[in-house]
Amino acid sequence: MEHLHRNNLYDVKDRVALVTGGGTGIGLMITETLVKNGAKVYIGSRRDDKVQQVARETPGHIVPAGITGPSSPFFNDESAPENKSAAPLGTALFENEKVEEWQGLYGNNVASIFFVTTAFLGLLAKGSEQRGPWSACVINISSVSGQIRISQAKWAYNSSKSANIHLTKMFATEFALKNIQSDHTLGKEDVNKAAQGLQPVPFARSGNDIDMGGITLFLSSPAGYYVHGQVITIDGGFGAVQPSSS
Q1: Whole-prediction pTM value?
Q2: C-beta neighbour count of 124 within 10 angstroms
């Protein structure tokens, strides 16, 4: 029964994670949670100053990874043992796609997830081979704005977040053949950002690091290995009082 002890059930010690946007906001909450629990975290970000600040101020193994994708400096880090002999699975499955075909907001909220995720498929597949099926996982972060039917005067943003959610479901179907877990977490970080026409958050507070850190540990540890293709909403009941597509 030792495998059911909390130290084993939620164990992410010595796991290797890439957190895009891991220097601020929800990404930072996830970075701090994983590092605090013994994981090695690469932070992918365009804001190098924020990443360097996090690396200085947060005890643990944090590595700045720059802008992530097929040409990321991460893949040229020969000192990283997790890079050794990683099969080019992403190239094999998605080589016909071109990032130039994705534009504007959909580029930021949908294409970025597609290209970053597929760039790391080789490493993820190798991770599942080493630790056992479904131990490697992709956790995409979206927004409750992708589930509600009120536009909030943000037609492109909200619809792109909805596309973001569906993309993860498509990944789940493809990745099932490679023993890679794919799930989606929807966060609502700021209770005060509700636009006109929306009901307030029933819990009357913003989401915090405990909310996001807890679900991250669950999905990335043995406790979450049997969860696949799911959309998990962390919103303090916000979606329960809005017209929703889910």
Answers
A1: 0.73
A2: 25
Q: How far is CA 4 from CA 11, 171, 189, 223, 224, in A?
A: 11, 29, 31, 9, 13
Residue type, 156: A
194: DSSP letter: P
> Tokens standing for 59?
């005890």
How far apart are alpha carbons 246 and 240 in whole angstroms? 10
CA 154 to chain centre: 23
Domain 2-241: homologous superfamily in CATH: NAD(P)-binding Rossmann-like Domain (3.40.50.720)
Domain boundaries, the chain: 2-241
In tens, the pLDDT along 104-113 reads 788 888 998 9
Tokens of 127: 């991770």
Residue 169, judged by CB atoms within 10 A of its CB (0-12, 13-18, 19+), counts as middle
